[in-house]
TrEMBL record:
Residues 108-136 are annotated as: Disordered. GO terms for cellular component: chloroplast; small ribosomal subunit. InterPro entries: Ribosomal_Su5_D2-typ_SF (IPR020568), Ribosomal_uS9 (IPR000754), Ribosomal_uS9_bac/plastid (IPR023035), Ribosomal_uS9_CS (IPR020574), Ribsml_uS5_D2-typ_fold_subgr (IPR014721). It comes from the Eukaryota. The lineage of its organism: Eukaryota, Rhodophyta, Florideophyceae, Rhodymeniophycidae, Ceramiales. HAMAP family: Ribosomal_uS9_B. The gene is rps9. Gene3D superfamilies: 3.30.230.10. It comes from Polysiphonia sertularioides. It is found in: Plastid, Chloroplast. Residues 117-136 have a biased composition (Basic residues). GO terms for molecular function: RNA binding; structural constituent of ribosome. This is Small ribosomal subunit protein uS9c.
């Protein structure tokens, strides 16, 4: 979705993973990332894995230092939030230029990962773990 906000062009996308939701806004800039008002590297605890996941759509397109990324995330943990940021960022990049969609889709970055925690069943300790069986 394209909106003009104080003469700045903003592209937005929403990503979800497990119980995490990320609303991503892109503006032309220098390549900084801000997540929930905190610098992205600090929020993702300087983890190379989380940072690689979050930045992957920009690396695929070669746009690492062309857009500033502002993200609001909620729910889940850092793994789910990093994956949600990746999907939201990929969707926002598709709004910028429809040619980006082909590259992102071939890398699998536009697919929502639908895996989530399985619910606990009665009589079991967890979703599938059963108490130890006693023959007598």
């Amino acid at each position: 979705m394209l909106t003009s906000y104080h003469k700045k062009v903003i592209y937005s996308g929403t990503g979800r993973r497990k119980t995490s939701v990320a609303r991503v806004n892109l503006t032309p800039g220098s390549g900084k990332i801000v997540i929930n008002g905190i610098p992205g590297e600090l929020y993702l605890q300087f983890s190379p894995n989380y940072l690689r996941i979050a930045y992957s759509p920009l690396h695929v397109l070669g746009l690492t230092s062309e857009y500033d990324i502002y993200v609001k995330t909620q729910g889940g943990g850092l793994t789910g939030q990093a994956d949600a940021i990746r999907l939201g960022l990929a969707r926002a990049l598709c709004d910028i230029n429809s040619d980006n969609r082909i590259m992102l889709k071939s890398e699998g970055l536009l697919r929502r990962d639908s895996r989530s925690k399985e619910r606990k069943k009665y009589g079991l300790r967890k979703a599938r773990k059963a108490p130890q069986y006693s023959k007598r």
